[in-house]
User: What shape does this take?
Amino acid sequence: MAVYTRLGAEEMSAIVETFDVGTLISAKGIAEGVSNSNWLIETQHGESARRFILTVYESRTDISDLPFFLDLLDHLAARDCPVPRTMHDRDGASHRFIGEGEGRKALALIEFLPGVSVSEPTAGQARAVGAALAQIHLASADFGQARANSLDLPAWQQLLGDCGAEGLESIHPELGRLVERELGVLAREWPADLPAGVIHADLFPDNVLMLGNKVTGLIDFYFACTDLLAYDVAVTHAAWCFSTDGTQFRPDLSLALTEGYEAVRPLTPAERESLPVLARGAAVRFLATRAYDWLNTPEDALVTPKDPMAFARRLQFYADPANSGIFGA
Amino acid sequence: MAVYTRLGAEEMSAIVETFDVGTLISAKGIAEGVSNSNWLIETQHGESARRFILTVYESRTDISDLPFFLDLLDHLAARDCPVPRTMHDRDGASHRFIGEGEGRKALALIEFLPGVSVSEPTAGQARAVGAALAQIHLASADFGQARANSLDLPAWQQLLGDCGAEGLESIHPELGRLVERELGVLAREWPADLPAGVIHADLFPDNVLMLGNKVTGLIDFYFACTDLLAYDVAVTHAAWCFSTDGTQFRPDLSLALTEGYEAVRPLTPAERESLPVLARGAAVRFLATRAYDWLNTPEDALVTPKDPMAFARRLQFYADPANSGIFGA
Assistant: This one.
C-alpha cells in the first residue's frame, strides 16, 4: 500500500516513451497493491489523453511468473473479459527492466480501467462478480500456460505449522484446536477430480472495479494460478459474502454470487457438492497467511497486518453443519 | 505520503454528489502530501470525464486556516495563475465535513492539473518557476486575507532550542555551533522594511507541476502565509538551486530562477541586498523543522525523516562570504 521505488519524472518519461503510448503528462504514485509500487499515469497521444497503471514489481513478486500474469490479461481481454490489457513496448515485450544488478526490477504498463471498489456490496453487484468470475474461467480454457498454486493445502499446512499451536493460541485460545481439526478435514476430504483451470484466487472487492452493477475491471491477478475452478468460487464467496470482520454472513449476497456464476458456467453436481469443503479451504488459506503475517510482522513495519480472526470466523461458519445448505447442494 | 482516512466508494460517491461535478467513476488513493489523505478521482459529467484531487485534512492542518488556503487558490486561478481551482459544493462552500465529534474532518475537492514534478530541473524550468512565483506575488496583492507565518524566526529559535545543543550535535558535531552563530546573525540582520504579501513558502520541485518548460500547476499551498516576498524567492532558491543533499550549488539554475522572477516582478534594491540573509533564513527554516523531526520521530514511524544536513550544507554555502555575489547584489 505504498510506493517503494523512487522514479524521477525524467526517468519515467523515458520509460513511457519506449511503450509508444504518447508523452507523459501526469504521474501520481498510488496507494494500491500490497507489495508493488504503482503509479496512475496519463499520456498525451495526438489529440487524446490516455491513462495507464505503471507497476514496478518489488521483491515479493517472482519475475519468472510475470509472463503468466501479463499474458493472461491479454488473453482474457482479447476474449472480452473485463480485465486491463497490458501495453507492449516497441520490441513487443509486456515488461521491461529498470536498474542494474541487485537493484534490477521489472515494470509493466497496464491499461487503466474506470470503476470503484465497493465496500458494501449489493446483491446485484455480487451477481455481476459471480458472472465475471465464470467468464474468466471459461475464457482461460485455451490459455495454454500453467502456474502451480503456491498457496495450496501443503502451503497452508506449512504456514500454520510455522505459526505453531502456541503462536495460534496467542491470537485466540481456541485457534490452535480449530486449525488442527480443519487441516485434518481438508487432508481427508479435499476433492481431486473437479474441473481445473486458471483461477484468480484473490477476488476480494478491492480487486474488482465496478460502476453500479457492472464489473468494469477484475484486477491484481498476481495470485492467479492453475487450480480447481470451484475453489475460486469458494474464495470469492469467502471474500464477498461476509462482513469484513467475518461476524455476519450475508445470505442474499451468497445466493446472488452463485446464481451469477451459474448463469454463465453451471457447476457440475460434484463441484456443488464440494463447495462446503472448498469454502473451508478458502477460509483456511486466508487464515494461514494472515496468522503467519500477524505473528511475523515486525512492530515497526509499514503495513498493519490484517486480523486473522476475520477468517477464523468464516471458517467456523462454513464448518458448522447448520450452514451446510447455503450452497444449495 | 499515505492515505490515513478510509473512505468507502459509496461514501465517496455521496460526497462527490454534493459538489455537482458528475458521477464518481474512479478513485485512487495517492501517495502525495505529507500530512493529508488524497485521492485522484474521476467523474462522468454528461459526455466528458473530469478529474479532481479529493483531500481529507488530517489533524496537522488547522481547519480554521482552510478558508485562507482555498480562497487563495480561487483568487489566484481567477487571475490566470497556474494553480488549481477549488470546487464549491451546492451551498457554495469550498470545504465540507465528514464524520462526527472527535473524528470530524474537513475535505475539499480541488481541480486536477496535468504536469509532473521534475527531479533534475533545467535552467529553462527554473526560469519558468521564478516567473510563476512572481506571478502569484503580484496576483495576491489584492487578496484581502492574511495569515501569520507560523514558521518565522521566533519559531525557528523555538524549534532549534527544543532540539538543544546536544541534540544538534548528535546529528553533526558542528551543528550546534553553526545554528547558534546563524540564529545570532538572523536576529541582528533580518530585514523589516521589505515588500510583504502572500507567499507560498514551500515551493519545492514536488510542489510544482510542469510540462517541459511550462509550469502547469503550483500546488500544496498549506504553508502559504503573509510574509516578505523576497523571503519566498530565497525559499524557492534554496529548494531549486542545489542537489537534493545540498552538496552541489547550481549557478545556472540560480541565475535562471532570479532572472525569471525579475522578468515579471523586478526586485527592489533593498530586496536584492537582503537576499543573502533571507537565504540563510530559508536554510535555517528547513534545517529547524528537519532537525526537530529527526530528533522527535519515533523509530517505528511511517515516515522517514528527511536529512537536516542537506539544509545545514545550504546554510554554510549561503553564509560563506565567497558566495555573497550569487544574487548579483
In short: The domain at 123-327 of chain A is CATH 3.90.1200.10 (Aminoglycoside 3'-phosphotransferase; Chain: A, domain 2).
